[in-house]
Amino acid sequence: MKQVLSILTLLVVTWGFATTRPEGTIVSVQNLPGSVAAGFHIALSGRKILERRLNAPGFADLTGHILEQNYRKMQKDFDRLGCELQFYDYPFIPFDDYYTRDEMSFIRGKVPNKNVSKAMSLVAELIQNACVVDEKGLAQATRSCTGGNRMRASLSTVAGNELRTLLFSEDYPSYPTYFKGQAPSLEMVHKFMKIYFSPTNMIVTVLGEVDSNALKKSIEKDFSGWGGDSSRIEVHKAKQTIPEKKTASLETRRKSQGYVLLVRPLKDEMNAREIATALLFARQVSDAISFQLREKEGLAYSIGAGVRNIGGHYFLTLGMGTSPKFVTSSADRMDNMLESLLTGGKIAESELQRIRNSLLISRRMKRLTNVNKAFFNGLDLLWNRPQNFEEEVDNSIKKMNVATLEKARALLSGPEIRILI
Question: pTM (2 decimals)?
Answer without folding.
Answer: 0.84
